[in-house]
Hints:
This protein is of the alpha/beta class. The protein is built from 9 helices and 7 strands; from the N terminus they run αβαβαβαβαβαβααβα.
Amino acid sequence: MKIKKARQNAVSEHKKFLKAQDPNEIFLSIIIPLYNEENSITNVINSIPNQYPHEILVVNDGSTDKSVENAKNVRNRNVRIIHHPQNMGYGAAILTGINLAKGDIIVTLDSDGQHNPKEIFDLIKPIMNGETDIVIGSRYMGACHYTVPLHTKLGEYVIDKVLWVLFGQPIKNNQSGYRAFTKDVKEIIEKSRFKGMGFTTEFLFKSGIRNFRFKEVPIEVRERFYGTSYVYLPKLIISILILIIYYSFLYVIDKIYHFIFRK
């Protein structure tokens, strides 16, 4: 109990620290998972606003094209490139970046050019204001310049309802890769079980169980002009179903335990 109380106090103090700071004084860690996006990675990096102190962690997840070469050629940016020996999955790339991040606030965005890096401040602002711990960029609240596949909408609808039932915090665009969160969230996701695309859902479930607050903000999501999506739908569906069952079970057991042994 003392450890839990100490952690809660530390989180509270960090929130007060963030709220008291000028946005231009907060240090950001911007994580970009990279897998075969040679045509877009340069523009993504160069579009990141310079007015905030930050580091850019590009996690190369086994790219076989010129993605890494193009990222290395970017000049006058604080870019660090980390390499996976082989393709290990989206979640693994994000986790590698998180484990190395030094920022007060961590931001993740995709390397395919669909996210607008200039909207980073829109994501960190609610955290700075003390409104929330985690911000998800939502195409449904903002502008989406392509047709979202029906299976994606259906999957997000199911996850949205489960998040609402369990945690009272619905997130419609729960598969969004454009997110921001405080470094306090870092400790609960460093040991995530799902290293592929299922990480996105696990991130929200683990955060919900630990009572972190979510908030969606509008973002622009552009059409993908280059590259290929590497999402393997059957595998993703299976992993998300397993994830929902697993974390729902943990949540219910946790509630029963605290009901029985509460003092």
